[in-house]
UniProtKB/TrEMBL annotation:
This is Sodium:alanine symporter family protein. Its main location: membrane. Keywords: Cell membrane, Membrane, Symport, Transmembrane, Transmembrane helix, Transport. One of its GO terms (molecular function) is amino acid:sodium symporter activity. Pfam families: Na_Ala_symp. The keyword Cell membrane applies. Gene3D superfamilies: Amino acid/polyamine transporter I. It comes from Planococcus maitriensis.
Length: 472
C-alpha cells in the first residue's frame, strides 16, 4: 500500500510539473495573443470598471453584485497557498521564483478572463431564480458537449470532498497549535458556521464574503505594509534579489540549498497557478452569478482577482520573508510552511505569529464557504436543486471528518483529481476562444459599452473643469 501511495505521489508531482505547467503557459500565451494583450492595453480602464465602480449600482441582470462575485471567487483563491505556498516557492526555487510567479499571473489573466466571460455568456436561471453558470454550462451550451460538462461537474463535485477535508484539517490543527482547542470542537464549530452561510445561497455567501475577504486581506496585507514601512530601505534589495535570481541558478545561502534555473521557473509557475487558480474553472462559477450588462465587463473582475491574489497578497508574503532573512536560516528548508509565521514573529514578536494564524484561519474558513457552494452547483447541474442541498450536507460532514484527520490516505489523490478538472476546462476555453474574442471585440467596438464609458468619463471631466473654472 505504501509503495502504491508513493507511486501516486510521484505521478502527481510529475503531472503538476512540466506537463501541466507547459499546458497552462502555452494556453495562457495563446489567449493573451488572441485577445490582443488586452490585460496590458486596457489596464487603467479595467481598474476603473472594477475598483472604481464598487460604490456604483451595477448595470444589467444578475443575482449578486460584481464585487460580491469577486470576493466570493477570492475566498476560494486567497488561502493557505498565499501563506504557505510562497515560502515553499522561495525555498525550493529561490527568490527568482517570485518573478516567474508574477509572469504566470499576468499570462494567466487571459485564461481567467476567458473562462469568466464564457461563464456569464452561457449562464442560465435555476428554479430559485438565481443565475448559475461555469465550465459545465459553456461545455454543454457552447460546445454542445454535455458529456464533457458532466465529466467536469462530477469530477469537481467528488474532488471537493477530500479538498474540504484538507481545509478542515488545516484550520483544526492551526487552532489547536495556537489556542489549544481540541480538533473535534473546531471541526464542529466550523461546520455550524459554514452551514449558517451556505444554506442561504449565493446571495448570503456574497454578503458575507464582501465583508470577510476585504477584512482578512487588509489584516494580513496591512501587517505586511507596516513591515514595509518599518523596513523601506529593504525594498530595492528585495527587487534586486528577485530579478538577479530570476534568470540564473540561485546560489546557496545559509539554510537555503540553492536551485537550478529550471527549478526557479518551475516553482514560480507552479505556486502562482496554484494560488490564483487560472484555468481551473472554479472562479467562473462565482462570476456567473454577477449583475452585469456584458460578459466582458465581469471578465475584468476576474482579472482583478489575480491582481489581488498573486500580485498583492503573494508579493506581500514574499517581501516579509525575504526582508526578514528567515529563508536563509538553518533548518528553513525543512520548515518552509512555518516561514511566514516566523518572519512576522521576527518583526512583531508573539503578536506577529498570532496575526498570521488568525489570517490563515479566516482564509481557510472563507475557502470552505465558497467551495461548498461550488460543489453544490455541480450537484444541481447533474441532479437538480434537491441534490445540491444533499451535497451541502455531505461537504459539511467532510469538514468535521477532515478536522479529526479522517481520509488522510486519499489526500495524495487531490492533485490528480484537480488535473481531471483543469484539463477539460482548458480544452473548452481553447475551443471557444473565437467566441471569447468576438465578445471582447463587441465590447470594445460597440457604442453601448467601452466607447460609451469613455464618453461619460470625458463629459464628467469637462463638467468638473467647468465647475472649477466657475468657482475660481
Amino acid at each position: 500500500m505504501e509503495r502504491f501511495l508513493q507511486g501516486v505521489a510521484d505521478f502527481s508531482a510529475w503531472l503538476w510539473g512540466i506537463p501541466l505547467i507547459t499546458m497552462l503557459l502555452v494556453s495562457g500565451l495563446y489567449m493573451t495573443f488572441k485577445l490582443g494583450f488586452f490585460q496590458f492595453r486596457y489596464i487603467g480602464y479595467i481598474f476603473g470598471q472594477t475598483f472604481g465602480s464598487i460604490f456604483r449600482r451595477p448595470k444589467g441582470e444578475g443575482t449578486v453584485t460584481p464585487f460580491q462575485a469577486l470576493t466570493s471567487a477570492l475566498s476560494s483563491t486567497i488561502g493557505a497557498a498565499n501563506i504557505v505556498g510562497v515560502p515553499a516557492a522561495i525555498m525550493f526555487g529561490g527568490p527568482g521564483a517570485i518573478f516567474w510567479m508574477w509572469v504566470i499571473a499576468l499570462i494567466g489573466m487571459a485564461l481567467k478572463f476567458a473562462e469568466s466571460v464564457l461563464a456569464v455568456e452561457y449562464r442560465e436561471k435555476n428554479g430559485n431564480g438565481e443565475f448559475v453558470g461555469g465550465p459545465m454550462y459553456y461545455m454543454t451550451k457552447g460546445l454542445n458537449m454535455k458529456w464533457l460538462g458532466v465529466w467536469f461537474s462530477f469530477a469537481l463535485m467528488i474532488e471537493l470532498i477530500p479538498s474540504i477535508m484538507v481545509q478542515g484539517n488545516s484550520i483544526a490543527n492551526t487552532v489547536q497549535a495556537t489556542f489549544n482547542v481540541p480538533v473535534l470542537w473546531t471541526g464542529i464549530i466550523t461546520a455550524v458556521l459554514v452551514s449558517i452561510v451556505v444554506f442561504g445561497g449565493i446571495k448570503r455567501i456574497g454578503k458575507v464574503t464582501e465583508i470577510f475577504v476585504p477584512f482578512m486581506a487588509l489584516l494580513y496585507v496591512g501587517g505586511a505594509v507596516v513591515i514595509l514601512l518599518m523596513n523601506v530601505k529593504a525594498v530595492p534589495e528585495f527587487f534586486m534579489l528577485i530579478f538577479s535570481n530570476a534568470f540564473s541558478p540561485a546560489p546557496v545561502m545559509g539554510g537555503f540549498a540553492g536551485a537550478a534555473i529550471v527549478e526557479v521557473i518551475r516553482w514560480g509557475f507552479a505556486r502562482g497557478l496554484y494560488s490564483n487558480e487560472a484555468g481551473l474553472g472554479t472562479a467562473p462559477i462565482a462570476h456567473a452569478a454577477a449583475t452585469t450588462d456584458h460578459p466582458v465587463r465581469q471578465g475584468f473582475w476576474a482579472v482583478i482577482g489575480i491582481v489581488v491574489d498573486t500580485l498583492i497578497v503573494c508579493t506581500a508574503t514574499a517581501f516579509v520573508i525575504l526582508s526578514s532573512g528567515v529563508w536563509t536560516e538553518e533548518g528553513a528548508m525543512e520548515n518552509s510552511s512555518a516561514l511566514t509565521s516566523l518572519a512576522f514573529e521576527q518583526y512583531f514578536g508573539d503578536f506577529g505569529a498570532i496575526l498570521v494564524t488568525i489570517a490563515l484561519i479566516f482564509f481557510v474558513l472563507s475557502t470552505i464557504l465558497v467551495v461548498v457552494f461550488y460543489g453544490a452547483k455541480q450537484a444541481e447541474f447533474l441532479f437538480g436543486l434537491k441534490a445540491a442541498h444533499g451535497m451541502q450536507v455531505v461537504y459539511i460532514i467532510a469538514v468535521v471528518l477532515g478536522a479529526i484527520g479522517a481520509a488522510e490516505v486519499i489526500w495524495g489523490f487531490l492533485d490528480i483529481m484537480l488535473a481531471a478538472i483543469l484539463i477539460p476546462n482548458v480544452i473548452a476555453i481553447l475551443l471557444l476562444s473565437n467566441k471569447v474574442k468576438d465578445l471582447k471585440n463587441e465590447f470594445f467596438s460597440s457604442d453601448e459599452y467601452y466607447r460609451k464609458d469613455l464618453k461619460v468619463k470625458k463629459r464628467a471631466k469637462r463638467q468638473k473643469a467647468a465647475r472649477e473654472g466657475y468657482e475660481s
